[in-house]
Amino acid sequence: MTAKDHPVTSDPNRDGTPDARDRALRPPDRDRDPRDAAPDARTWRAARAWRGVRAPLTTRARTLHAGAWWVWALGLAVAASRTANPLLLGLLIGVAGYVVAVRRTQDPWARSYGAFVKIGLVVIGIRLIFAVFLGSPIPGTHTVLTLPQAPLPEWAKGVRIGGRVTAEGLVFALYDGLKLATLLICVGAANALANPARLLKSLPGALYEAGVAIVVAMTFAPHLVADVQRLRATRRLRGRADRGVKALWQVGLPVLEGALERSVALAAAMDARGYGRTAQVPRAVRHTTTALTLGGLLGVCAGTYGLLAAQGAGYALPVLLAGLAAALGGLWLGGRRSVRTRYRPDRWGARAWLVSGSGAGVAGLMIWASAYAPTALHPPAVPLTAPTLPLWPAASVLLGLLPALVAPAPPAPPASPSKETPR
Amino acid sequence: MIRFEQVSVTYEDAAGPALRGVDLSVDEGELCLLVGPSGVGKSTLLGAVSGLVPHFTGGTLHGRVTVAGRDTRTHRPRELADIVGTVGQDPLAHFVTDTVEDELAYGMESLGLPPDTMRRRVEETLDLLGLASLRDRPIATLSSGQQQRVAIGSVLTAHPRVLVLDEPTSALDPAAAEEVLAVLQRLVHDLGTTVLLAEHRLERVVQYADQVILLPEPGAAPVIGAPADIMAVSPVFPPVVALGRLAGWSPLPLSVRDARRKAKALRERLAPLAAAAGAGAAFQPEAGAAPLAPTRPAAPTLPMLPTNTSRPIGEAKGLSVRRGRIEALKGVDLTVRPGETIALMGRNGAGKSTLLSAFVGLHEPAAGTVRVGDAIPHRTRPAELLRHVGLVPQEPRDLLYADTVATECQAADRDADAPAGSCRALVTGLLPDVADATHPRDLSEGQRLALALAVILTARPPLILLDEPTRGLDYAAKARLVDILRSLAAAGHATVLATHDVELAAELAHRVVILADGEVVADGPTAEVVVSSPAFAPQVAKVLAPLPWLTVPHVARALEATA
């Protein structure tokens, strides 16, 4: 059988064609893609190979390790911190946004991304406002407008309120704000993609109970918001205004009361379900744990001081490392007091390596790029020039798109989540 | 399995003990039902089994409680976690994690079970409770019935030998309640689990019980015995028992099936009355706005639609409401006329609460119109709307802000612009023995509901909406509520109740509207709607079918007429 026999569908490099790529970027259907069932044997083989690589739907077993998403996002954030080029920053935001758009689930925590984007915009706004009213250290020649300057006493020399606003200063502030916003958006992406509770599940045993406390606190925040909304609505039933600061203030106390009652009820439920059961450990082990942890932390402090202080750099590193080792040993021993086991912990599989690797790769390539192309990564604000997109750094940022291909795809949203009959 | 020896519990700063002289034992594999009016210490008794009383709640426990041989004095709740599984009244307060599967595993993780055992038990429990399709869902997106099942499942995975449940079906619609009870039955019969549960809705559970513990009044010793014997002396009993007491049957029937077999004579006695009354033509409204002189006193006096054509005081036309991406109501039509009582029924999440909220302007219609009197709720100022419509929410406490009853009443007078003292007069009418200085939180569920109702009534709204008013009420409080609502209807107020309580609807409503998935699927006189579907039929109707009586008082009145 040759390609000639089947001219219509025989494309040996089908995986590389735009069509296949396009197919991969689209969240796959729940059912098998009908196009996979091509009649041709070679196509079929290619399709089968592709199906092996293509991202599966998210289920509990296939969920990507939460840590992988964080490594990826922090990699992008490191890359963002290395450049002030607005085009590269925009590309990073685009990469993070695209991956979030195609890979986030319908779960409550996934909605936080929008909030992070808004905070990013606010950060840019604040940075610009500061640049306008407090001036900017950037010398500039293009005056945009001149504000009346507030006279300040002698001791406040060096501080300026009002005065000349230059285009250069504004552009510099914009780049700077954009950098901060990009960092925030990267963190937001990790928040939206990784379940925070699952991340805490990966903590060592000794820290597990602290982790549960944090998870509980996090699930309380949405409850609190719901309470405020409900109580503000019931104010309307009493014939009082349901909007405004006063309304919010007056529901404060009942909301806190409710939250307190709920936490007491939850604490009772957790106790009744065995939270805080401990194993009997020999006294010697307990004392060793305490000694190791305390000693280790002291060592870490001393080592860090040594590293930062001018003298003593010689012994600082060994002390720091020994302290770290002792503290980790203490944590490990402390874990023996906990009888807990883990239910289906996330596995760090090949896909997790690919996702985290792509983030680390972006960071590494960008750090390298700041060595070979420093001017392209930091376009000068003085004199004003249009920034250009440096080819290779831009290409390395695109590596961050890999999770959009390999990470498990979210399942199709149910038609109406809360309408399912209790059956 | 559970043994109480001379147990009494006294809470700090309480006048008397919450429990006194409790001596009882529950054997393995028994489904034991704890009954009694509100405030007799049912929750305290349940808490003593899991060790939460006194380890968590404080107070002093005298005597001895042992569960599977472990003394709760020396074992803290966490050390009993592998033996006792506890599910409280509010399943949402019970959840530690955020998805169904993690929640099922949480208890086992605490106990330190090996991972493969945990996995197997989670799968078994998902199947046992019918939760397999929900395994990855965030718990917050589930309906109340589903949440209740997850809460039960989350303690079942630890394979406890004792299951303690506080009002497991109170918040559930009839079908979901059946489901939960079926699961409990299965646990008792297949796994030999001991189940101890407290429940106000006796009509749902009493027929499944092997043993009943009755706490007749606060501080009194419990009465323990077979269900039929206890029901003969209990101050709280379901309608089917009331019917049995009325007809003098012995032993008392506990299920519709038992009663139906005994009711042959009663049906024969009542049949001529029904025939004489004609097919519904002479049925009288219970306390309608159009009171007709009872023409045939022997007729089954069922509440029915008052034949009035006055202007509606509440009206929804083609009403659609969207909540987020979900269409909570789709083209709903509802007309409420003065003096009418309407029961709004349907499963959890069918849109009942959304419909009530739309009438007070909490939701803006996506399509269609809603009006109360001349006002369009969501465009009316709250102070003005108060005179047209009042809503008592599911949790009446949300409506109460002040720290004493007196200040609450003063605030209500101010809000409604009513003469000073009008709210307090209403409270005195509804709750004769409540002191001014009482904190609203210290009231019982029934008293709190009455206070919230009084606050709403201060503005004299012609339309009153109640969301799940009987949740957590015992039979006495419910009877008081029925009286109050009847007299309001007689005074010309229209009432709409969203409720799962079929007995309440049968007793009170002229009309029943059933919602499913945001649409009206039935709307008609109570007798017709309620009897035509088994899930919504009250017990008396099931016992006496095809005769048209719905409640025990109706039957009593008919029998009086013949005597």
TrEMBL record, chain A:
Full protein name:
Energy-coupling factor transport system permease protein
Membrane topology, as annotated: Multi-pass membrane protein
* PANTHER family with a match to the protein in the record: COBALT TRANSPORT PROTEIN, PROTEIN ABCI12, CHLOROPLASTIC
Where is the protein localized?
A: Membrane
What CDD domains does this protein's entry cite? Answer: EcfT
Annotated GO CC locations: plasma membrane
Disordered: where is this region?
Answer: 1-43
- The highest taxon in the source lineage is Bacteria
Q: Which chain regions cross the lipid bilayer?
A: 87-103, 115-138, 206-226, 291-309, 315-333, 353-371
Provide the primary localization: membrane
Alphabetically sorted, this entry's keywords are: Membrane, Transmembrane, Transmembrane helix
Q: From the record, what ranges are coiled-coil?
A: none
TrEMBL record, chain B:
Enzyme class at the top of the EC tree: hydrolase
For this protein, the record's Pfam families field holds:
ABC_tran
Q: Which GO terms describe its cellular component?
A: ATP-binding cassette (ABC) transporter complex
Domain named ABC transporter: which ranges? 2-243, 314-542
Its primary localisation, in coarse terms, equals membrane
Report the membrane topology from the UniProt record.
Peripheral membrane protein
Entry's localization field: Cell membrane
Q: Name one GO molecular function term.
A: ATPase-coupled transmembrane transporter activity
Cross-referenced InterPro entries: AAA+_ATPase, ABC_transporter-like_ATP-bd, ABC_transporter-like_CS, ABC_transpr_CbiO/EcfA_su, ECF_ABC_transporter_ATP-bd, P-loop_NTPase
- Keywords, in A-Z order: ATP-binding, Cell membrane, Hydrolase, Membrane, Nucleotide-binding, Repeat, Translocase, Transport
Give the Enzyme Commission number: 3.6.3.-
**Tree of life domain:** Bacteria
User: PANTHER family given for it?
Assistant: HEAVY METAL TRANSPORTER (PTHR43553)
Write out the function statement from the record: Probably part of an ABC transporter complex. Responsible for energy coupling to the transport system.
Its family remark reads:
Belongs to the ABC transporter superfamily.
What is the name of this protein? Energy-coupling factor transport system ATP-binding protein
* Organism encoding this protein: Streptomyces zagrosensis
